[in-house]
C-alpha cells in the first residue's frame, strides 16, 4: 500500500515549485556564497545526496551530545557538561546544514533533477532537523529538561507547520525578512559559539542586567528573566508575527488568482491549523499528567526519547501535508500515528480522569518502556512513509533518488521537468 492514490500520480508531473525569499541576509550575503559553493560539487552528485549529508551532520551533532552528556539520556536528575569545543562543532555543523540545505535546489537546477521528489526529500530532512536542533539549542542554553524546552519545541514546530500550511494554500514557499531557515539558524550558530566561549551558564544572566537597563523605570514592571528564557519568549512573539503574515498571504491567495487556492478542501484554511493544535495538545497532556510513583516524564531520562518520538510524529504529519501539496490532494486532517501518544496520554492521566492508577505507566521504568516503544513505532512509521513515497514517485516519474539523470544525444536531461527548485 502506498501513500499516493493512483488517480493523483499524474499531478506529480504538473507540480511546480515556487518560492519567495525576502531576506536581505540571504540575498546580499549568503546567496553569493551559496552560488559559489554549489560549483564545488560535481554534476554527478544528486541533490538529495547533498540534502541527506546535511541531515547526517545534525545527527552527528546530536550523537556528540549523547556521548559527552550521557546522563541527559539515562539519569533522571543528572547532567554532564560537554567540553566547550563541542559547541563550536555544533555551530559549524549547523552552518554547514544551512548551506547544504540551500544549495541542494541549486544542484537540482544544474542537474535537471528539480521536481516533487526533491521537495519531499528536502522538507522531510528539515522536519527531522527541527526537533534535533531544538534539543541541541536548548542544551546549549542550559534549559535542559524543562517546560522552556517544551515551549521552544512547540514554537519551532509551529513555525514549520505554518510555513507548510501556507505553501499548501498559496502554492508558494514564503520566507520573510526574518525567517527560521536563514536568520533563525544564524542566531543559533551564534548561540553555540557564545556557549563555546563562556559555557551555558552565560545564559543564566538576567536580560536587563546584561543590557544595563535594570534601573530604567518603565522596564521595572517587565520581569528581568534570564537570557535563555528571554530568547524563548522572543521566539514565541516571532511565531505570533509569522502567524499573522501567513494568514494574510493565504487570505490574499484565496481572493486572487495568485497562488493555488485549494478547491478540493471543504474546510476554511484556519481550520486546517487545528491538526497541529490537536497533536500538540496530546503531547502536553502526556507531559503534564499527575505524577504517579515518580513516573513524571518532563524531568526524567524519558524526556529526550519523548521529544524524539514527538519529532518523528511531526515529521510524518507534515510529510503528508507536503505530499498533499505536490499531488494536489485534500489536506490530511488526521494522522493515525498520533494514536500511540494518545494511548500514553490517556493512560498517564487515568488518576485524574477516573481516579485509578495507570495501566502501563506504573513506575519510572514502565513509563520509560512506553516512551521508548512510542519512539520506535514512530520512527519505523516515518521510515515506512519515506520509503513508500520515494518508491511511488521514482517509479512513476522514472527517476532515481540518489542518481543524477543522464543527458540525451541533444544535451537535454532525460525526464527533466522545466521547473527548478530554487531554495
Automatic annotation (TrEMBL):
Locations listed in the record: Endomembrane system
Requisite cofactors: Mg(2+)
Reactions mediated catalytically: CDP-N,N-dimethylethanolamine + a 1,2-diacyl-sn-glycerol = a 1,2-diacyl-sn-glycero-3-phospho-N,N-dimethylethanolamine + CMP + H(+)
Domain of life: Eukaryota
The keyword Transferase is annotated on this UniProt entry: yes
Membrane topology: Multi-pass membrane protein
Record field: transmembrane: 50-68, 230-250, 270-289, 295-315, 322-346, 366-385
InterPro entries registered for this protein in UniProt: CDP-OH_P_trans, CDP-OH_PTrfase_TM_dom, CDP_ALCOHOL_P_TRANSF_CS, CHOPT
PROSITE patterns: CDP_ALCOHOL_P_TRANSF
Keywords from the named record: Membrane, Transferase, Transmembrane, Transmembrane helix
UniProt keyword annotation of Membrane present: yes
Recorded GO CC terms: endomembrane system; membrane
Pathway: Phospholipid metabolism; phosphatidylcholine biosynthesis; phosphatidylcholine from phosphocholine: step 2/2
Pfam families per the UniProt record, alphabetical: CDP-OH_P_transf
Any one GO molecular-function label of the UniProt entry: diacylglycerol cholinephosphotransferase activity
Secretion signal, residue range per the UniProt entry: none
EC numbers: 2.7.8.2
PANTHER family according to UniProt: BB IN A BOXCAR, ISOFORM C, ETHANOLAMINEPHOSPHOTRANSFERASE
Similarity annotation: Belongs to the CDP-alcohol phosphatidyltransferase class-I family.
Protein name as catalogued: diacylglycerol cholinephosphotransferase
Amino acid at each position: 500500500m502506498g501513500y499516493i492514490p493512483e488517480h493523483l500520480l499524474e499531478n506529480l508531473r504538473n507540480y511546480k515549485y515556487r518560492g519567495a525569499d525576502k531576506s536581505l541576509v540571504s540575498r546580499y550575503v549568503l546567496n553569493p556564497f551559496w552560488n559559489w559553493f554549489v560549483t564545488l560539487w560535481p554534476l554527478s552528485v544528486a541533490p538529495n545526496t547533498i540534502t541527506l549529508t546535511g541531515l547526517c551532520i545534525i545527527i552527528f551533532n546530536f550523537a556528540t551530545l549523547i556521548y559527552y552528556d550521557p546522563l541527559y539520556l539515562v539519569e533522571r536528575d543528572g547532567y554532564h557538561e560537554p567540553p566547550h569545543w563541542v559547541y563550536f562543532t555544533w555551530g559549524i555543523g549547523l552552518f554547514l546544514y544551512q548551506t547544504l540545505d540551500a544549495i541542494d535546489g541549486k544542484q537540482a537546477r544544474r542537474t535537471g533533477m528539480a521536481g516533487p521528489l526533491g521537495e519531499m526529500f528536502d522538507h522531510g530532512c528539515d522536519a527531522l532537523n527541527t526537533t534535533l536542533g531544538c534539543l541541541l539549542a536548548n542544551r546549549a542554553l542550559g534549559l535542559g529538561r524543562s517546560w522552556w524546552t517544551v515551549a521552544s519545541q512547540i514554537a519551532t514546530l509551529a513555525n514549520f507547520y505554518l510555513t507548510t500550511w501556507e505553501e499548501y494554500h498559496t502554492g508558494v514557499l514564503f520566507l520573510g525578512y526574518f525567517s527560521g531557515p536563514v536568520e533563525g539558524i544564524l542566531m543559533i550558530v551564534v548561540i553555540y559559539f557564545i556557549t563555546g566561549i563562556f559555557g551555558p551558564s552565560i545564559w543564566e544572566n538576567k536580560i536587563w542586567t546584561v543590557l544595563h537597563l535594570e534601573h530604567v523605570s518603565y522596564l521595572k514592571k517587565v520581569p528581568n528573566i534570564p537570557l535563555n528564557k528571554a530568547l524563548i519568549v522572543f521566539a514565541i512573539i516571532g511565531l505570533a508575527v509569522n502567524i499573522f503574515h501567513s494568514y494574510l498571504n493565504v487570505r490574499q491567495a484565496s481572493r486572487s488568482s495568485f497562488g493555488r487556492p485549494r478547491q478540493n478542501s471543504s474546510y476554511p484554511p484556519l481550520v486546517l491549523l487545528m491538526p497541529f493544535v490537536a497533536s500538540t495538545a496530546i503531547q502536553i497532556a502526556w507531559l503534564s499528567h499527575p505524577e504517579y510513583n515518580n513516573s513524571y516524564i518532563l524531568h526524567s531520562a524519558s524526556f529526550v526519547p519523548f521529544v524524539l518520538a514527538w519529532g518523528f510524529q511531526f515529521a510524518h504529519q507534515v510529510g503528508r501535508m507536503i505530499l498533499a501539496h505536490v499531488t494536489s490532494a485534500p489536506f490530511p486532517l488526521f494522522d493515525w500515528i498520533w494514536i500511540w501518544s494518545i494511548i500514553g496520554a490517556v493512560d498517564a492521566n487515568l488518576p485524574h480522569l477516573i481516579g485509578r492508577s495507570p495501566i502501563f505507566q506504573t513506575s519510572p521504568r514502565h513509563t520509560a518502556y512506553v516512551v521508548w516503544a512510542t519512539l520506535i513505532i514512530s520512527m519505523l512509521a516515518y521510515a515506512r512513509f519515506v520509503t513508500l513515497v520515494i518508491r511511488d514517485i521514482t517509479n512513476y516519474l522514472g527517476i532515481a533518488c540518489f542518481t543524477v539523470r543522464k543527458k540525451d544525444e541533444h544535451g537535454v536531461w532525460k525526464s527533466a521537468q522545466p521547473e527548478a527548485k530554487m531554495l
